[in-house]
Amino acid sequence: MRERRAALIRSMEVGDSIFVTEAVPSWQASFTAVSKETGWKFIGKMDGKKKKRFWRSA
């Protein structure tokens, strides 16, 4: 699952968003790792209880 998640995040284009329904901290760690690795930026916004949408902004 973790490899699939990482591949999914890495395949995002600028402006793409992904909706997260599982525990947010593990996703934040994934996005942080990809951000450090690639220099991309992500914006996260809460969409209700334990749901978050992440946008790749750059």
Q: Your description of this structure?
A:
The protein is of the alpha+beta class and 58 residues long. It is built from two helices and three strands. The chain has a three-stranded antiparallel beta sheet with strand order 1-3-2, covered by helices on one side. β2 and β3 form a beta hairpin. The model has no long low-confidence stretch (mean pLDDT 85).
Distance between the termini: 25 Å
Q: State the helicity in percent bands.
A: 40-55%
Element order, helices and strands?
Answer: HEHEE
Derived from helix and strand composition plus strand pairing, the structural class reads alpha+beta
The averaged pLDDT comes out at 85
Shape summary: globular
Total DSSP helices: 2
Number of distinct beta strands: 3
Q: Strands across the major sheet, in which order?
A: 1-3-2
Low-confidence stretches: none
Radius of gyration: 10 Å
* Beta-strand fraction estimate: 15-25%
Q: Strand count, sense and closure of the main sheet?
A: 3 strands, antiparallel
Question: What's the short version?
Answer:
The chain has 58 residues and is an alpha+beta fold. The chain has helices spanning 2-10, 24-38, and strands spanning 17-20, 42-46, 52-56.
